[in-house]
Structure prediction request, 201 residues.
Amino acid sequence: MSTAREDLLAAGLAVFDRDGFEGATVAEIRSRARASNGSFFHFFTSKKALAGTLFLEILQAYHATIISSVDASCGAGEGVERLIHAHLDWVVSNRREARFLFEISRSEWGEEVRGAQRSENSRLTDGIERWRAPLLARGELLPMSAVLFFSQIVGPAQIFCRAWLSGRHTGDPREQVETLIACAVRAVVAPGAPERTGETS
Prediction:
């Protein structure tokens, strides 16, 4: 059974998705959640505070999905494939959350949100580096910074995702997955790298 806080967050997500951040009101969020004014302000000091909390919770869920997609058994190419599939599958399966995360959220929600976001981004980097570092050491992935590596993996896929989330493109972003994987492999995987950890080329 959901709690009043969860109901307010779910209502906020639905109202932000429909009306945008500027168009959303506390009254509409409360009405959708069937929550009193006092209940809303017990959990959140403002619409911005609710939006910031929602952003961080969605970001954590997205990062958890990405981190869990790779492990020590994945070779370089297989890991790249899993990361791209994980990103695309999460966006398509969680369209409302993805739209809020990538299309609606904004930088002026406060230093508290930005600080927590930096911590979350560090957690994502650490999770991927646990898989990537041994492959880098063996020369199976091309040397580059963690930020550049992740941008090569998710950046091109994100272009299709944003077009789909905004309605500019109606095709499922996963339709492009094989091409996206092939391009990412060429960008980050060393020629001749084995498909799985422990294989010899």
